Amino acid sequence: MNSSTLVGSLIFAAVLVVVIAVVIQMMMLGWRRRARRQDELIGDLPGVPDVVGPATTTLRGVYLGCTLAPEWNERITSGDLGYRSRAVLSRYPEGILLERSRANPIWIPQQEITEIRTERGMVGKVGARNSILAIRWRLPAGVEVDIGFRAGNRDEYDGWLEEAA
Question: What stretches pass through the bilayer (predicted)?
Answer without folding.
Answer: 6-29
